[in-house]
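MODEL INPUT / OUTPUT PAIR
PAIR INDEX: 1
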Amino acid sequence: MRLAHYEPLSLSDFPGRLATTVFTVGCNFACPYCHNPELVTPTEDTPRLTEEAFFSFLERRRGRLNGVCITGGEPTLHPDLVGFVDRIRALGYAVKLDTNGSEPEMLGNLLERSSLDYVAMDVKAPASRYSDVTGNPHALALAEISIQLLAGSDTVHEYRTTILPLLFDEVDIDGIAGMLPPGSRYVIQNFVPTKTLDPNLVRARGFESGDLETIADRTRLHYPLLCITTRGGV
C-alpha cells in the first residue's frame, strides 16, 4: 500500500468508534474541491508512511482505539487493499472504507468477504455532470455499479456529497439524491475552503445556513436518514 500519513485519533471519521484515519496516495478523479490535492497525483514532496510504521502504531493503540478509517486519495486503486484490511482486522480493529466508488470489483470483493464494518461512498455530482466534475469519463457508470453493490449488501454504509454554490444548485442536488436508493443514509457535506485541487476554489464558500436547511428539508422527503455536516471537500 502506498500510504501518506495517519491521524492518530479521530472522533468523527468513523461513526461510533474511536479511530485512527490512514490516508492512501493516488486518485483517479480530479474533483476541483478536493481538500487533499497532494494525494491525488503523488510527487516527490508527497508524504510517505511505511506499512510497518502504521502497524506498529496500531499495535501500541490496541485497547485504546477500536476502529481504522481508510481514506485517500482513493484506497480501492491499490491491489493490496484486501490484505491490508485483513491485517488491520486481525489486530481486532473495525474497518471503515471511504471510496469514490470507481473500483466496483475491489469494493464488491471486500463486501463479499465481509471485510468492512462501514463504507462511505462519495456521490460526486448529478448524472449529467459526473464526468465534468470528476474529470473521469467512466466515473458515472462505475459509481452506479458501486451504489447498487452497497445497497444490496449487509454492510453499514452511507452515501455522501460535498456541495458548494459555485458548482451545484438545488436542481443538481436533487439530481444527485435521485441516484440513490430511497431511504438510504445520505450525508450532505457543506464545503469549507481549506486546500483545494483547483486553486480558484480556495476562496469559494459553502451554502448559507438558511439555504442549507431548505435543501435538507427537500431531501429528507426521500432520505429521512439525511445528515448535514460541515467539512472540507473530499
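PAIR INDEX: 2
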Amino acid sequence: MPKAALITGITGQDGSYLAEHLLTLGYEVHGIVRRVALEEPERRLGRIVHLGERLELHPAALESYPSIFQILSRHRFDECYHLAAQSFVAESFADGFSTMSTNIDGTHYMLAAVRELQPECKFYFAGSSEMFGKVRESPQRETTPFHPRSPYGISKVAGFHLTMNYREAYGMFCCSGILFNHEGPRRGFEFVTRKISSGVARIKLGLATEVRLGCLDARRDWGHAADYVRAMHLMLQQPTPDDYVVATGEMHSVREFCELAFAEVGLDYHDHVRVDPAFQRPAEVDQLLGDATKARAVLGWRPTCTFRQLVAEMVHSDLKGLMGRASPLDRSAVAVTSL
C-alpha cells in the first residue's frame, strides 16, 4: 500500500510543489480546498490543474473544526502537511483578526483532529522566518529567540508552540519547519518577488512603465520553493520528530532582486522602480538570514537553486506567460538564460 498524505493549502505555491514531489515518490495525495475552489477550478486550482485526477481533493475550511474532523474520520493518512495560512504579511496588518483566526485556530483544529482520530499520523507545521522578526542574532537558527513584528509572524509563533505542545504533551510525531523566504514562478502576485518579476515582464512587453515597491533595502534569505518542500518531506521521515530551519545561508536585498530581474531583459531598474511609502510595513523586518546546519546534518538537505537562477526563472516564466507561449506556472517550460 502506498503512503497517503494530506496537504492543507495544496492550491498554493508550496502545496503544489509538495504534491508533485510526493506523487513522484509514489504517495497517494489528498488536499483540503475551499468548496468555492471546486466550483471555480479554472481560477482557483491553477497551480495543480496539471496534476489532474492524480489528486483527491476534499472541501473544507480551516475555520471549521467539523469539516476537518469529517475528512479525517473518513480517510486514513500517514502524513499531514499543514501549509494553509493567511501568509501575506501586509494583509495581516490590514486584517489581523482574520489572520489570527485562520492561522492559529486552523492549526489548532488540524492538530486536535489528528490527535482525536489518527494520532499515529505524522504532522508537519509550516513555520516561518517571520517568527524571528526583530532578530536577536544572525544568522538565525532553531535556538534563536522569536520576536515577531507582524500579526502574521505572531500567528506563526503561536502555531509553532501549539505543534510543539502536541508533540510534548501527547507524544505525537509533530515537526515544524522554520522556512525562510522561498519563491518561484508559482508565487502569488502580491508578494514582492513576484511583483517584481511580473512587473519586469510587463515593462519589457510595453504593458507597464514602472513597479512601485516599499523598502528596497530589506534583506532576505531567498530560496526556491521546490527545494524547500523536499525538506518538509524529509522531516517526517526521521526516527524522531524535531524542528528545523530551512534556508540557503545567503542574504540579498530587494534592491538586488530588482537589479538582477531588470538586467535579465536588458533594463536598468533605476528607470522603472519607484519607492512608495504605501507599501512599507508599520513594523519592518530589516534582515533575515538562516542557518540550516541542522537540516544539512540530520536531513541531508541542501538547496539546488541559486539566487540568480531563481530570479531568472521567475522573470522568464512571467515573460512567457504574458506572451502566451507557456504557462507561468510550468517550471519545466522555463529556459533559464542567465545562471
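PAIR 2 NOTE: Residues 104 and 158 are 6 Å apart (CA to CA).
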